[in-house]
Amino acid sequence: MVMSITLSLVAIRRRDIASHRAWIIRGYAIGQGAGTQVLTSIAWLLLVGTPGPITGSLLLGVAWIINLAVAEWIIRRAGLRGGKTARKALLVAAQPLAGPLCSVRNASTSRLNSSARSMIGICPVSG
Length: 127
Prior knowledge:
Layout: H1 2-13, H2 17-31, H3 33-47, H4 53-78, H5 83-94, H6 99-102, H7 110-120
Helix pairs in contact: 1-2, 1-5, 2-4, 3-4
């Protein structure tokens, strides 16, 4: 959920409203997982009986999967972007952390670091 909120903030700072909305919907879906967990647990309890520790954990995970599946359906139905825009948001979020990576320069690794940095898109290619 923290990642979804962070990526939504990065998107809104770029003025990418559609991507922001998509990430907020995902974050909300994760946050509402507790309500769905109650429903899946009650349904299991009524149909099968008391769940064991492993089954209980699986039911909690299933609730989050249900919420995220519904959120993705809503996002796609509304035509909000999420694929390439999500990658761009991750790269923008990583840029402050990439400062040391971008400044790594020595004779033996300069070319490798430059091509690796440009491949992942964090740092511009220099020379």
